[in-house]
Design goal:
It contains six helices and 16 strands. It has 325 residues and is of the alpha+beta class. The chain has one domain. A hairpin with a 6-residue loop joins β7 and β8. The longest helix has 32 residues. The two termini are 42 Å apart.
């Protein structure tokens, strides 16, 4: 059993105990405004494992046609039809953490107050990243082949501006619906290099924030999510071009946390544990309840057959995908 003991801390005599904790380097500013409204984080309240929403499908342009003024023949009528969008609920746990009272006493603190606060800050970030990585897995899996620009087998296959344009072009005359890109930092730095080679200025303004490639006028969100990387020789990467409301993460209630003293051991221990729930929905797709089942894990989220296109037009879906090196 893993328990935080006195030996796990740096004990200083009458010296300042630093307040810095190890911070995660993968940022979470990709929700709502940070993603130009393509990945939304909202609060919802839902019972059960799935949420279903019925909608009317587009009746199609063929309903308007040339009229033959010389005929009075019967015409086959059109009909309205409905389909449904399905979002899925995920249940996740925050595993127990044990801290001895002695360990914090020797650094001038206590596990119930300071220990819980430090742990809470870290867990909050980890929860956000888990949600982000999950929804990126689902998006990569859901985008159909008709909206995918696969350059992963090309030589050299390194991302460039032409690939990005070809990927946007998958939306044809609806290309303006692609509002933002999400990519790994490796791809972003490759784009930077091309920008420098081609003589563009002011492309690079920072790292791991929202960036703008001047002539595409779309933000690029950079995140080193494992969901965008396929390990191999060489590694290949997934770049998402997302539409408005491409993905929605709905928090179901608050994170539940519980804590208690644990007795019967060599030392007094403060134990914390928690759990939380949230839904994932993808624009234009229904989660396949038969294939995917309840409470999907990371593998199920990343399985294409678990996301069924529910709309008739590709242009009404979550976006486009580029595969590159």
């Amino acid at each position: 059993m893993a328990i935080t003991n006195l030996s796990d801390f740096k004990i200083y005599d009458e010296q300042f105990q630093g307040g810095m904790i190890e911070m995660l380097t993968q940022y979470d500013q990709v929700f709502n405004d940070g993603s130009a409204g393509t990945i939304r984080l909202v609060t919802d309240d839902m019972l059960g494992y799935y949420k279903r929403e019925a909608f009317f499908q587009n009746i199609g342009s063929s309903i308007v046609s040339r009229q033959d003024t010389t005929s009075n023949a019967a015409v086959t009528p059109h009909k309205l039809s409905q389909s449904e969008l399905v979002e899925v609920k995920l249940f996740r746990k925050i595993e127990p953490t044990d801290i001895t009272y002695n360990s914090f006493a020797e650094i001038g603190g206590d596990p119930e107050g300071e220990g819980s606060y430090i742990l809470g800050k870290q867990v909050a970030q980890i929860i956000t990243l888990e949600m982000l990585n999950g929804v990126l897995k689902a998006l990569v899996a859901a985008v159909p082949s008709t909206l995918t620009n696969d350059q992963s087998a090309a030589t050299p296959g390194t991302i460039d501006f032409a690939m990005i344009l070809d990927t946007i072009a998958k939306f044809g005359d609806n290309h303006s619906r692609v509002k933002a890109f999400v990519m790994h930092s490796k791809n972003w730095f490759d784009i930077q290099k091309q920008g420098l080679t081609d003589g563009f200025e002011n492309i690079v303004n920072g790292i791991l924030t929202a960036h703008y490639v001047p002539f595409f006028n779309r933000p690029v969100i950079v995140t080193d999510s494992a969901s965008l990387l396929v390990s191999g020789s060489p590694n290949t990467y997934r770049v998402l071009g997302l539409t408005d409301n491409a993905a929605t993460l709905s928090k179901i209630g608050d994170v539940r946390m519980a804590a208690q003293q644990v007795l019967g051991q060599e030392q007094l221990v403060w134990r914390t544990q928690g759990e939380y729930r949230y839904n994932i929905s993808l624009k234009g797709f229904a989660y396949d309840t038969a294939n995917g089942g309840i409470n999907p894990d990371a593998t199920a989220l990343a399985t294409a057959s678990n996301w069924d296109k529910a709309v008739a037009s590709d242009y009404d879906t979550a976006g486009v995908l580029l595969k590159c090196k």
